[in-house]
Design goal:
- The complex is a heterodimer of chains A (259) and B (196).
- Chain A has 259 residues and is an all-alpha fold.
- Chain A has one domain (2-188).
- In chain A, 66% of the residues lie in helices and 2% in strands.
- Chain A has helices at residues 2-14, 25-31, 35-58, 68-90, 92-98, 109-117, 124-154, 176-200, 215-220, 232-246, 248-258; strands at residues 156-157, 160-161.
- With 196 residues, chain B is mainly alpha-helical.
- Chain B has one domain (22-194).
- In chain B, helix 3 runs antiparallel to helix 8 (135-163).
- The chains are: A mainly alpha (259), B mainly alpha (196).
- At the A-B interface, helix 2, helix 4, helix 8, helix 10 and helix 11 of A face helix 2, helix 4, helix 6, helix 7 and helix 9 of B.
């Protein structure tokens, strides 16, 4: 039971998929137009994540290593389909507002990432709680981002007007560009914390700076390697061309000092 | 073809590529958009590979939906079938290009593994079904969406090349600046909504 609690804490705080690891950015940006949408998407993803972790962990000794990724995908896609049909039947309003992003849960990095890195090599109960913990962490993050965007974009929270009438809503935060701005602020904050920890000599490696810092970073977490196993190196060799460029700004700084 | 059809296809072509841009307003395919946009030429390569794969995938997915899923009344299997078909298709395209067209493989090969997990590919296939597009309309929609991706990633890469030599506050270096740029581009693309 202790282990289950540890898994929940890990998902919610220590390795929060959005705030710490920065995985699954597409749905995070797309559906967080309001707190309610974020909550709905988070809970839907949590159900899929917990159930697929459970089944994959149950089948971990049966699924051959070489075909594990397609097997994971079939399991995940089945649960997504089931959840989508249930939503269509019982919560049609949520299904409509989340639209195409419900079936796209299949390609959410978090789910395959957890299957690959945890459920496939751990017993059933911890895997289930790992899924629930990660799902709760994702839900928490989406609800927070949704709340910020709803508050700034419409002056409301969960549909209730919170701010006085004198507040002029910054409409852009409810629309597509606002998502980019909110995420930019979030990643900047992460970078800041990372830099502070680096200077203080504390561990910081786990903090991601965007799933998308570069595709190498992504493939390490199993994003690109999903179907290709070792072929992920192809992407890496491509990105190495840009590694030289990374040094660019520093040399530029020193030039500036010279002047 | 009748005038009406051509008009409808034109509307889809402009709508999917500019007005509701796949990355800037729908947030699909963000990973390659942010990850492979450091240089204009790599971005253009990625863009072309995406056009190629999405157009092909929407054609194949459209045919399978129409002649297999609808025919046997198992439309609810679309998510499972589409993701497997797309994964297999990208693998197949990679093998085919390597054997048959080495020159094209040289140019596009490295990008192909990155595209399998591009949610835009699956997104287009599902959108085509949800909007009840026919096969031809679906292909045009796929092509237009991918062209929109290509335009967006090339513009972003161009801006990032210019940004490289700017003095940016430490916390905002790297991804935050790119995201802010993408946000400003999204505002600019909002201007296209008057087109239709």
């Amino acid at each position: 039971m202790n282990r289950a609690g540890e898994r929940l804490y890990n998902g919610l705080v220590k390795e929060n998929p959005t705030f710490v690891l920065m995985l699954g950015m597409c749905p995070t940006l797309a559906v967080t137009t309001s707190a309610m949408n974020g909550l709905g998407m988070g809970l839907t993803t949590m159900v899929v994540l917990a159930l697929s972790n459970l089944i994959i962990s149950l089948l971990r000794n049966i699924i051959p290593n070489r075909v594990r990724i397609p097997a994971f995908i079939v399991i995940i896609a089945s649960f997504v389909t089931a959840v989508q049909l249930l939503l269509e039947a019982y919560i049609p309003a949520l299904n409509k507002s989340l639209g195409v992003y419900i079936p796209l849960i299949v390609v959410n990095c978090i789910i395959l990432g957890r299957a690959e890195s945890y459920a496939y090599s751990n017993p059933v109960i911890p895997s289930l709680f790992d899924g629930i913990g990660m799902g709760l962490g994702f839900t928490f993050a989406l609800t927070c981002i949704g709340a910020v965007r709803e508050l700034l974009g419409a002056g409301e929270l969960f549909g209730f007007a919170l701010l006085p009438d004198s507040f002029v809503p910054i409409r852009i935060f409810g629309q597509a560009p606002g998502a980019f701005f909110v995420l930019a602020a979030l990643v900047a904050l992460q970078n800041y914390i990372k830099n502070v920890r680096k200077k203080a000599g504390k561990p910081y490696e786990k903090i991601g700076s965007g799933c998308s810092e570069d595709c190498m970073n992504c493939s390490e977490k199993g994003c690109t390697r999903r179907f290709y196993g070792e072929n992920g190196t192809q992407a890496e060799s491509m990105e190495q061309g840009t590694a030289v460029k990374k040094a660019g700004p520093e040399t530029k700084d020193s030039e500036r000092e010279d002047r | 073809m009748e005038m009406e059809n051509v008009k409808e296809l034109l509307v889809i072509l402009i709508g999917s590529s500019l007005v509701s841009n796949v990355v800037l307003s729908q947030f699909l395919g963000l990973c390659p958009f942010l990850g492979v946009s450091r240089k204009t030429n790599t971005a253009a390569g990625m863009g072309v590979a995406v056009i190629f794969v999405i157009t092909l995938a929407s054609a194949v997915a459209g045919v399978i939906y129409r002649f297999v899923l609808v025919r046997f009344h198992v439309e609810y299997l679309e998510t499972i079938v589409f993701i497997l078909v797309i994964a297999a298709l990208v693998q197949f395209v990679e093998m085919f290009l390597r054997k048959a067209m080495p020159a094209l493989y040289e140019a596009l090969g490295v990008y192909l593994p990155l595209i399998t997990t591009n949610c835009a590919v699956l997104g287009v296939a599902i959108t085509n079904v949800q909007k009840e597009y026919g096969i031809l309309t679906g292909i045009v929609n796929g092509f237009a969406t991918a062209v929109g991706f290509c335009i967006a990633i090339v513009i972003l890469a161009g801006i990032r090349e210019k940004l490289e030599y700017n003095d940016i506050p430490e916390s905002f270096r790297g991804m935050p600046t790119v995201l802010l740029t993408a946000g400003l581009m999204a505002i600019a693309f909002c201007g296209f909504s008057g087109l239709l």
